[in-house]
Design goal:
The complex is a heterodimer of chains A (354) and B (322).
Chain A lengths: L3 H15 L3 H29 L3 H23 L2 H8 L2 H5 L5 H32 L5 H28 L3 H29 L1 E9 L21 E8 L1 H8 L3 H9 L12 H12 L6 E5 H7 L9 H7 L4 H23 L14
Parallel strand pairs in A: 1-3
Antiparallel strand pairs in A: 1-2
Chain B lengths: L18 E10 L2 E11 L4 E5 L6 H8 L7 E6 L8 H7 E4 L11 H11 L4 H14 L15 H13 L5 E5 L7 H16 L3 E6 L2 H5 L4 E6 L2 E2 L2 H8 L3 E7 L2 H10 L8 E3 L2 E6 L2 H13 L4 E6 L3 H15 L1
Parallel strand pairs in B: 3-7, 3-8, 5-6, 6-7
Antiparallel strand pairs in B: 1-2, 1-4, 8-9, 10-12, 10-13, 11-12
The chains are: A mainly alpha (354), B alpha/beta (322).
């Protein structure tokens, strides 16, 4: 056997030479650069006022995640079964590299390719960082999570391409996994929250308009009897965990935590993450509005929590989501390796090994 | 070139190189691709694997090439078991598949180099080996061309070069000559004969029997997933085969054949040649002597088909008679 890392390196080199070629990738990279450049210019104007590059930085990182997850399935989703169709898989398998080395090499090659989008966006990321206001913690955390998420998509693609016989289906299945995580979690969250509802009792005590005091009068107004009505409120606090599996939420939850002086998030990560954090708070089931008391006792103005307070009182979830993604990716890779191992015992119907 | 059926040869010492296959079986779902194959291919000889399409030749080769596990039976390739120690087999075995896959974005030279690297050679050694093999299979002029630009025959030669990269002692060639022009065919024959002369075991599958006739020392016949028994081979080998006769005076030849009492139903004419079946070489020789005695000026008198083909066709006849 060839030493493990050397074998993997050989396969990576071969993949990059063989698969990732042609002008298509460069055209895409060019378009992507243009898109990021336009965004940079537009957001620059927004951020200039705030003196912070936070929005610019987070938007570019989101772009890289979006483009990466849209392209990685196309790059990786036919890695193994495409080679089988082309008749090059078996000729590689009879050499001294192992199936594990072949599949892992293909995964790494696909990951590196999707990282090209990160590389071309680096100048823009540096610009946004130079604008200030982007803490090093955000940069490190969000880039690490971005790397991990792109790796997960590549792993899912390569794994499925080893499990599913037809390249077309494995590419489609990879897109479905990406869509399920990116969009499906949102739908599940919305529907789940609406399906589980809770009754909210709202009690209101109003002042009799007849006795509404004139300005300057100290005479106590007559209070009307309390009006009680009930309605249903969705319980997003019970299903927020679904959102934790969303890659955009993972990225946001890991990358944010910075607030401006008035307690508002100063980047896109913070805004997205806050939506999820806010969903963790259960709805109040008893709501009282007492106009009468407010009038006599003076408006106490029940303090609504600021963004920062909500943030600090809720649970971070990014590591759970990320761990789930890594588990899915690693599991599919492992399954793919098991299915591709030679000498092969079981073959799916209609599959030719060569 | 001796072309004895392999069953007549003395058995090789098990595990001493070569290929030894015993009672091999493999099914895909309900399809029993290989039912019962037993044979031996010995070092220093070219063994032909003969059988009609769908006889199980490629499935057998996939099992020998460590890609497929058998359901039952034992295999030894170069003294190693492909199921329990595939990497030991891969080290000594070169496989040329029937599917002509190549990394189509790579140049011919690079494709060979990469294969050498995948066999664990150093970069330097891989480069040397690519040079050697490019000249061995006469692809030097195309060394820089991407492999997708190759013709079928050229791809075939690249595939052979790849199979030879690590100088294997056992070679499995699946339909190596299909798509080759006559000159390349002759070159391939010389190459394969040379490889066998150096002591390698070569197993060649093909259904073009004329081609194997010139290439192989021994033959293994496979039919419906099973190797054909020695007894049936002997019977089939004894079956009648057509001989081709040409003469300067075709009219005289036809007349003489009729006069010698050959039924007209047995006589067929292809171009200027007459085809006549003879049950044995002895009978054919006597007939030739008779023609010459009658003054027929014979220019050609030879079997129209080779030994492999006669046996192959004989197998069909034996089945038909049974």
């Amino acid at each position: 056997m060839i030493p493990f890392s050397r074998g993997v390196r050989l396969v990576v080199t071969l993949e990059l030479e063989q698969r990732v070629r042609g002008i298509a990738v460069y055209v895409l990279l060019g378009l992507f650069t243009l898109l990021v450049a336009i965004t940079t210019v537009l957001l620059w104007r927004v951020d200039e006022g705030s003196g912070s590059g936070g929005f610019l930085f987070s938007t570019i990182v989101y772009f890289v995640l979006l483009l990466g997850t849209l392209l990685a399935p196309a790059l990786s989703g036919a890695a193994v079964n495409g080679d089988r169709d082309a008749g090059t898989l078996a000729t590689t398998q009879v050499t001294l590299v192992s199936t594990t080395q072949i599949v892992l090499g293909k995964f790494l090659a696909s990951w590196f390719t999707s990282l090209a989008f990160l590389v071309v966006s680096l100048p823009f990321l540096i610009v946004s960082f130079a604008l200030g206001g982007v803490p090093a913690r955000t940069v490190v955390a969000s880039l690490l999570v971005l790397l991990a998420e792109l790796a997960v998509v590549s792993a899912v693609g390569v794994g499925l391409s080893a499990i599913i016989t037809r390249p077309l289906f494995s590419v489609a299945a990879t897109y479905l996994v990406v869509a399920a995580l990116s969009v499906g979690t949102l739908i599940a969250f919305g529907l789940g929250g609406a399906a589980v509802q809770t009754e909210v009792r709202s009690t209101s005590v109003y002042i009799d308009p007849e006795t509404y005091p004139e300005d300057g009068s100290t005479e106590a107004p007559t209070c009307l009897p309390p009006e009680v009505y009930t309605y249903q409120a969705p319980r997003f606090d019970l299903v927020w965990g679904v959102l934790a599996a969303n890659p955009y939420v993972v990225l946001a939850d890991a990358g944010s935590g910075e607030f401006d002086a008035s307690g508002y998030p100063n980047d896109l990560f913070g805004q997205v993450a806050l939506l999820v954090r806010g969903a963790q708070v259960p709805p109040e089931t008893e709501i009282t509005y007492n106009e009468c008391e407010d009038f006599t006792g003076g408006y106490s103005g029940e303090d609504t929590a600021t963004a920062e307070e909500t943030w600090n009182s809720t649970t971070p979830s990014w590591f759970v989501g990320l761990a789930a993604h890594v588990l899915i990716g690693a599991g599919l890779l492992w399954w793919g390796i098991a299915r591709t191992r030679t000498p092969a015992g079981r073959l799916p119907r209609g599959q030719r090994i060569a | 070139m001796s072309q004895t059926p392999q069953v007549a040869a003395p058995p090789a010492i098990p595990g001493a190189g070569g290929i030894v296959v015993n009672g091999l079986r493999r099914s895909f779902g309900d399809v029993r691709a290989v039912r019962d194959i037993t044979f031996e291919a010995r070092p220093g000889r070219v063994t032909a694997l003969i059988g009609p399409n769908g006889a199980g030749k490629t499935t057998l080769l996939l099992m020998l090439a460590t890609l497929l596990t058998p359901d039952a039976g034992t295999i030894s390739v170069g003294g190693h078991d492909p199921v329990t120690s595939p990497s030991a087999v891969r080290r000594v075995m070169g496989w040329m598949p029937d599917a002509l896959g190549s990394w189509n974005a790579l140049s011919v030279r690079r494709a060979i180099e990469v294969t050498a690297l995948l066999y664990g050679m150093t970069t330097e050694r891989a480069r040397e080996r690519a040079d050697e093999l490019l000249s061995l299979v006469s692809l030097e002029s195309l060394a820089q061309a991407p492999t997708r630009a190759l013709s079928r025959g050229q791809k075939q030669r690249l595939s052979l070069a790849r199979a030879l990269v690590h100088d294997p002692s056992v070679l499995l060639l699946d339909e190596p000559a299909s798509g080759l022009d006559p000159a390349a065919r002759v070159a391939l024959r010389e190459l394969v004969r040379g490889l066998a002369r150096d002591g390698r075991t070569v197993l060649v599958s093909s259904h073009v029997l004329a081609e194997l006739e010139e290439l192989a020392d021994d033959a293994v016949y496979v039919e419906g997933g099973a190797s054909v028994s020695a007894e049936r081979l002997a019977r089939a080998g004894a079956a009648a085969r057509p001989w081709r006769i040409r003469s300067i005076d075709p009219a005289h030849l036809s007349w003489s054949i009729a006069d010698l009492g050959v039924p007209t139903a047995d006589v067929s004419t292809i171009g200027d040649a007459v085809l006549l079946p003879f049950a044995s070489d002895d009978e054919a020789a006597s007939f030739l002597a008779e023609l010459v005695r009658r003054g027929v000026r014979v220019t050609a008198f030879a079997p129209a088909i080779g030994d492999f083909e006669r046996t192959f066709q004989g197998l069909g006849d034996v089945d038909g008679a049974a």
